[in-house]
Amino acid sequence: MVSFIFSLLPLFFFIMFLIYKTWNQAKHYTKIPSGRMGLPWIGETIGFYRAQRSNQLFENFFQPRINKHGKIFKTKLMGSPTVVVNGAAANKFFMSNEFKLVISSWPTSSVELMGKNSIMEKQGDSHRCLRGIIASTLSPTGLPTMVPRMCRLIRKHLMKNWGQRDEMISLHRSTKVLTFAIVLECLFGIRIDADTMFGVFENVLEGVMAAPINLPGTKFSSAKKARAKIQKALVDEVQKKKEAMEAGGRDEDDAMLLSNLVAALIRGEVTEDEVVDNIVLLVFAAHDTTSYAITMMFKMLANHPDCYTLLLKEHEDIAITKRREEDLTLEDVKKMEYTWQVARETMRLCPPIFGSFRKATADIEFEGFIIPKGWKVLWTAYGTHYNEEYFPDPMSFNPSRFADPVQAYAFIPFGGGPRLCAGYQLAKLNILVFMHYVVTRYDWSLVYPDEPVVMDPLPFPSKGMPIKISPKHGY
Ligand code: HEM
């Protein structure tokens, strides 16, 4: 009898194990955030894209779901179960747990076109190494030499494209072309034919969010061809720089990012592919973001003349201390405090990047919910930027709110944690120096004060934000 009972023991333990597993799974599933998974595979992608296209993601996609399910909700986007998280605590948790619990997650076409060796695909030590090289160029020792370079480039751009007559120009296109030249010349120290290369880079950008189908005639295939052209031009640049550096040649571009990357290449810390892929990535990361921030600042200033008066005074006070073609210094730029408040308030209301996807590398517990391993997490800037808990009267434009400190992880146009925007300092300089030269040299007005913004995949003014300009007396 005893031996019969003993022979049943394995069965008993097996049944107990099954009961425990089922109970544990049930516990897990009850804690997954609520929300709708929509249609099979496609989920709620169509509603998401429709809202994104018309720049109504907050109003038509996030807000209704937050109202119904709470600030952490589930959905399914582009085939992936996704948890959307909102709020400063969630931003802090998911941004600072990069590499530990989550990793950034980009569509296949973006990775193929930016390059598998770009910083956005890197983790751990190789990520840290690349960030260190970028940071060394944008450090307190690198920035003071960058300011005069940027001043000269911006003045040259305005002289060539804005001119001395009353004209109408597309502000968005002008700032895109300018940002492109700034990244290549002022950050990298690369002097390639910017006018021709700009078009080629734009071709690549058109394929970044397209389906990764490499067949003749598809957006992705022409983007791949354009990418190959860029690859060739940049490999030539890298090799020229390497030969010059190995021969001991020194030039004025020595402290710039291309030299710093090539120095790391010579030391064997990075590969040639890493150098090229990261030049491409940085150009793209800067391109639509900075130009959108600048164009929306003009829109906000046009609609808030009191703010414009304050901003203009700040720049006139700086200009009065300068000779006509004298460059600004980093000290001058530091005086542009109100302009930076205007820029931040603009990016709060109109974030150039509305949020970003991560992938859970383990089951994650957060605020009583479980996010299963493999699911996507989407943090959004709207979740805090438009929330009165962090910004009283959130939909009104009030730059002076940034005179006071803001709660950590509530204002996140540049992201946060280890993936905080690596070009933050460059973007800030670009915005402030450009504003200085435009407002001190031109009167301007918007052609379409109510011009709608659309997104594809990043936001931009639908008509390119044309402005009427007229040079001020003396310029
Ligand atoms: C107003 C302008 C800009 C905005 C709003 C912006 C915003 C952002 C945001 C939100 C992220 C984080 C993305 C994530 O967490 O997945 C990011 C990352 C990044 N940004 Fe920017 N950016 C701007 C300009 C620039 C510029 C000028 C550069 C360089 C020239 C740049 C280079 C990068 C890079 C390399 C990363 C990836 C960092 C990493 O993965 O470690 N950005 N940016």
From TrEMBL:
InterPro entries: Cyt_P450, Cyt_P450_CS, Cyt_P450_E_grp-I, Cyt_P450_sf. It comes from the Eukaryota. It is a single-pass membrane protein. One of its GO terms (cellular component) is membrane. The keyword Zinc does not apply. Heme binds at residue 421. Keywords: Heme, Iron, Membrane, Metal-binding, Monooxygenase, Oxidoreductase, Transmembrane, Transmembrane helix. Its main location: membrane. Its EC number is 1.14.99.37. Gene3D superfamilies: Cytochrome P450. GO terms for molecular function: heme binding; iron ion binding; monooxygenase activity; oxidoreductase activity, acting on paired donors, with incorporation or reduction of molecular oxygen. It is an enzyme of class 1 (oxidoreductase). The chain crosses the membrane at residues 6-23. This is Taxadiene 5-alpha-hydroxylase. Belongs to the cytochrome P450 family.
